[in-house]
Amino acid sequence: MHLIKAVLLLTTVIEIGSFQKHYIEKSLSPVRSYTAGHEQETAVAQLLQRVIGERSQDVVVSILPAASEFATLSYAGKTLKITGSDAVSVAFAFNHYLKYYCRKQISWAGDQISDIPNPLPPVPAEGVTIKAGVKYRYYQNVCTVSYSSVWWNWTRWEREIDWMALNGINLPLAFTGQEAIWERVYKKLGCSDEDIKKHFAGPAFLAWGRMGNLHGWGG
Ligand SMILES: *[C@@H]1O[C@H](CO)[C@@H](O)[C@H](O)[C@H]1NC(C)=O
Fold it and tell me: pTM score, two decimals?
């Protein structure tokens, strides 16, 4: 009897799981890069320039749009070539190369990036293909925008976005502008500017205002 109950429970859990998976896949299916291949190529080349400076001259990147993500590393004449379906896959493959061939690291806590071997270390002659284990790589939670990044300037954001690409993130949470939408809605409902201003939290507390566990701001 216990076994039957356990099997029934397990079946239910699996069914809920597959329903959720179906729902999530359906709602995320439009999530992909809409940026032209050549623009992605420029973006990832500029990322390399920011990350490894003039040594980026030893790396050639190219984007070959494809139905499923991939990136390959190959090496010829002291030049590393990275070909991938999109900029994030190329950046992720570059980070793989940096870690496992150059023994260098770019992290939240700091970088160990000086003295990259010259010439760059070769990869096996048949090339190396890097593929992400999962389709969507999500990053951030609802609070970080307030308690970590609220006062960041562009320099700091650019580094974070570079870090995301290097780690293959393709689905970062960005609910920037949430209040602008709410303001429109509240106005339609007849709220005054003064009411709305009183209701929204200050910049460092927007996350909690958005989650509905705080309104207003004492200053
Ligand atoms: C951005 O912020 C960092 C850290 O506060 C600071 O060192 C840097 O000078 C700032 N950059 C610009 C362009 O304001």
Answer: 0.84
Domain count, the chain: 2
**Does residue 216 lie in a domain region?**
no
CA–CA separation, 11 vs 5, rounded Å?
Answer: 10
pLDDT tens-digit profile of 193-205?
999 999 998 888 8
Specify the CATH number for the domain of residue 113: 3.30.379.10
Convert the pLDDT of each residue in 46-71 to its tens digit.
Answer: 999 999 999 999 999 999 988 889 99
Residue having the nearest C-alpha atom to atom 9 of ligand 1: 155
Pocket test for ligand 1, best of 156, 158, 159 (most atoms within 8 A of CB): 156
CB of 151 shorter than 6 A to ligand 1: no
Taking a C-beta distance cutoff of 8 angstroms, is the pair 81, 48 a contact? Answer: no
State which residues form the domain around 196. 178-210
Quick one: which atom of ligand 1 is closest to the CA of 152? 2
